[in-house]
């Protein structure tokens, strides 16, 4: 029996091919692919524009991690926010991290399936991308959902 996720992914792929074969708007195709991703992962999986605007971030991404070792299970959402406005980040970054985590957890319908959310602020050097600064803040999802 074919899983639901595979069916959705296959339908999204076929739709993209069909739309690509006609002279359609590429933004529309990308939008369709993103909607397929959100359908598969859960509504609100992709970070909102509100989060991007809070810190003036150039790039935002999410990674979900669930792991089991012996009798313990851990599950973490990694919210990566890159190249934000230094003036906003420099003034109490822990408060900004909590606000971003709260918004993400409220938007993502499957957030309650995870124990923690780690917010990562990453600043890269435009002259040397190998040079970067990283700040991490970790919150319990349960605490954020109860506020």
Describe this structure in words.
The protein is α+β, with helices and mostly antiparallel strands and 147 residues long. The protein folds into 2 domains: 38 residues; 97 residues. It has 6 helices and 4 strands; from the N terminus they run αααββααββα. A hairpin with a 7-residue loop joins β3 and β4. The mean pLDDT is 82.
Helix content range:
40-55%
| Residue-averaged pLDDT | 82
For the secondary structure, the number of strands is 4
Low-confidence stretches: none
Silhouette: globular
Number of domains: 2
SS-derived structural category:
alpha+beta
What topology, given as strand order, has the largest sheet?
1-2-3-4
Tally of separate helices: 6
* End-to-end C-alpha gap: 41 Å
Q: What letter string, H or E per element, gives the SSE order?
A: HHHEEHHEEH
From the alpha carbons, calculate the radius of gyration and give it in angstroms. 18 Å
Q: Beta fraction of the residues?
A: 25-35%
Largest sheet: 4 strands, mixed
List the keywords.
147 residues, alpha+beta, 4-stranded mixed sheet
Characterize this entry briefly.
This protein is of the alpha+beta class and 147 residues long. 45% of the residues lie in helices and 27% in strands. The chain folds into two domains: 4-41; 49-145.
């Amino acid at each position: 029996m074919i899983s639901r996720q595979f069916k959705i992914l296959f339908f999204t792929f076929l739709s993209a091919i069909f739309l690509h074969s006609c002279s359609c708007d590429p933004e529309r195709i990308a939008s369709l692919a993103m909607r397929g991703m959100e359908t598969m992962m859960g509504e609100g999986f992709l970070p909102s524009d509100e989060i991007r605007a809070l810190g003036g971030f150039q790039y935002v991404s999410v990674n979900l991690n669930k792991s089991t070792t012996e009798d313990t299970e851990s599950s973490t959402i990694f919210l990566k926010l890159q190249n934000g406005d230094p003036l906003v980040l420099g003034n109490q970054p822990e408060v900004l991290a909590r606000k971003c985590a709260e918004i993400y957890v409220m938007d993502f319908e499957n957030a309650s399936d995870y124990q923690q959310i780690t917010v990562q602020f990453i600043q890269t050097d435009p002259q040397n991308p190998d040079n970067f600064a990283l700040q991490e803040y970790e919150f319990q999802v349960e605490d954020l959902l109860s506020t």
